[in-house]
């Protein structure tokens, strides 16, 4: 059986290294071909401008900076993404409140469910 992310290129924008490692492991278990990570808004924008991604996961808060410019860059390129956050819904910004949000800490099953919905044809 094909895995959910077989052959997909995934961008993870996350500033907490332990959380990032956990996400990378989960995405690998789902068959992801490549997982590219960024820890800052600047790194993420540079990656988005230089590479093509099939999907992304975006931490709402990157070391005190919000990730709105990263969300805009992904949306402009039609890259589907989900947010991850340790905070509440009040952080959702206008126009992006319909995006799926994973609450940290999240389980493998929660991640799988959100990604299946995100990537459904």
SSE series: EHEHEEEHEEH
**Main β-sheet: number of strands, strand sense, barrel status?**
5 strands, parallel
Q: Which regions have little confidence, pLDDT < 50, spanning 5+ residues?
A: none
Broad CATH class: Alpha Beta
The number of E-state strands comes to 7
- CATH topology name: Rossmann fold
Per CATH, the superfamily is Response regulator
Mean pLDDT: 92
Tell me what the CATH architecture is: 3-Layer(aba) Sandwich
What is the approximate shape?
globular
Report strand %. Answer: 15-25%
Helix count from the secondary structure assignment = 4
Domain Response regulatory: 9-119
Keywords: Phosphoprotein, Transcription, Transcription regulation
Protein name: Response regulatory domain-containing protein
Pfam family, one: Response_reg
What does this structure look like?
Helices cover 36% and strands 22% of the residues. It has four helices and seven strands, in the order βαβαβββαββα. The strands form two sheets. A five-stranded parallel sheet has the order 2-1-3-6-7, with helices on both faces. A two-stranded antiparallel sheet has the order 4-5. The mean pLDDT is 92. Helix 2 runs parallel beside helix 3. It has 121 residues and is α/β, with parallel strands linked by helices. The chain has one domain: Response regulator (Rossmann fold, 3-Layer(aba) Sandwich), CATH 3.40.50.2300. The radius of gyration is 13 Å and the shape is globular. Keywords: Phosphoprotein, Transcription, Transcription regulation. This is Response regulatory domain-containing protein. InterPro entries: Bact_response_regulator, CheY-like_superfamily, Sig_transdc_resp-reg_receiver.
């Amino acid at each position: 059986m094909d895995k959910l992310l077989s052959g997909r290129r995934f961008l993870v924008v996350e500033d907490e290294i332990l959380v990032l490692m956990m996400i990378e492991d989960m995405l690998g278990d789902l068959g992801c071909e490549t997982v590219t990570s960024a820890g800052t808004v600047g790194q993420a924008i540079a990656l988005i401008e230089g590479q093509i991604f099939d999907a992304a996961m975006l931490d709402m808060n990157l070391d005190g900076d919000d990730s709105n410019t990263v969300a805009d860059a992904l949306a402009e390129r039609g890259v589907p993404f989900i947010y991850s956050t340790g905070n509440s819904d009040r952080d959702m910004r206008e126009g992006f409140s319909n995006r799926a949000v994973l609450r940290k800490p999240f389980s493998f099953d929660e991640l799988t469910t959100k990604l299946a919905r995100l990537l459904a044809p």
